[in-house]
Amino acid sequence: MKKDSILKIAKYAIILLIFFFIFRYLYLNFSLVDFKALHFHAGLLLLSVLLYFVHQLFNAVIWHVITVQNHCSISLFEAIKLRIYADFGRYIPGKVFAYGILLFAYEKHKVPMKKIAACSIQEFMTQMLAALVLSLFSIFASEIKVLEPYKYIFLLMALGSFIFLYPPILQFIMNIFFRLFKREKIVISTSFGKVILAMILFLLSWLVFGWSFYFFINSFYPLPVENYFFITGAFAIAAIIGAVAVFAPAGLGVREGVVIFTLSIIFSTAVSSLISILSRLWMTLSEILLLAIVFAIDFISKRMKNT
Predict the structure, then answer these.
(1) Is residue 111 within 8 Å of 72, Cβ to Cβ?
(2) Tell me, what DSSP letter sits at residue 265?
(3) b/e map of 269-289 (b: 16 or more CB within 10 Å)?
């Protein structure tokens, strides 16, 4: 058997193993679920989906802003469309397919691949740092007693994260990875202020996601509003770890495990497992629906131009 085939089997075996333990936790702790507290509120679920749409579209607009900053932009609608399409590349192991789609799509618009590669890595680093800052700040802002002694440490770490956004430092870190993969060095042609702007926009997008996640949970299980910052930060931490786990498509399995671990601070393990599993389904179906809407708008607009 070829080495690539063995690695592929190993990747999916790890993902299946993670999901096995998630379902096992849910099964073993099933009796701890307060079924009297479970309910279904269609209005809150719809609101959560709409806010998730806003979060996804906001991220696509930020991508466009980054390309504008690096002087390689295309039209806003085309950029949003390509970003939404490319996001589905995350479901293929390795995480490079999402950016690969963008590279080839922008090349058709006469944009050099090198510039889009720089924008892609800048976007990834900025988004992950925004998630890190948010997760650290959320611990500081939350009122959970077990985290109380570490609040100011996490706040200082959040402020310290801004150092990595300084373009020469960000460029240096990015080129270390490029050197490891024997790729040509890239140059970040934007200013520190513009990078900070992109990160602030990602922070706002994460806050929108936090509300969508909050309303999603409340559509079937009660959650006090004072836990908003904590659940937002918990998912941001899960997103970071899921993004680093390159073997898992879209952080599949890994993100769910981290969500269970962090949410277990305020929920039982069974409820955390239930939220984790349902949130994956909620996000995936929402992304498919948004893709279908964007595709329909694109199809209709092209038909109107041709008539």
Answers:
(1) yes
(2) T
(3) bbbbbbbbbebbebbeebbee
Query: How many residues are present in the chain?
Result: 307
Look at 185 and 147; give whichever has higher pLDDT.
185
Q: Which residues contact 119 (CB under 8 A, 6 or more apart)?
A: 63, 66, 67, 70, 72
Tokens of 225: 């509003």
The CB-side HSE value for 289 (13 A sphere, CA atoms) comes to: 12
Q: What is the DSSP string of 82-94?
A: HHHHHHGGGGSTT
Closest CA to 197 of 123, 136, 141: 123
- The DSSP result for 185-249, as a single string, is -----S-HHHHHHHHHHHHHHHHHHHHHHHHHHHTTS---GGGHHHHHHHHHHHHHHHHH-TTSG
E strands, the chain, in order: none
Q: What is the pLDDT of residue 216?
A: 95
Average pLDDT of 1-7?
54
Nearest alpha carbon to residue 65 among 209, 192, 190:
190
Which amino acid, one-letter code, is at 299?
F
Q: Which residues contact 104 (CB under 8 A, 6 or more apart)?
A: none
CA atoms of 77 and 83, how far apart (whole Å): 10
Token digits for 63?
């991508």
**What pLDDT was estimated at residue 201?**
93
- pLDDT tens-digit readout, 221-263: 889 998 898 899 888 888 877 666 554 444 455 677 778 888 8
CB 164 within 8 A of CB 125: yes
| DSSP result, 176-202 | HHHHHTT-------S-HHHHHHHHHHH
Contact 6, 239 (CB under 8 A): no
Q: Name the pTM for this structure.
A: 0.78
pLDDT digits (tens, 9 = 90+) for 165-189: 787 887 787 777 777 766 667 777 7
Given the structure tokens 């690969």, which residue do they identify?
100
Q: Which residue has the tokens 């701890």?
A: 32
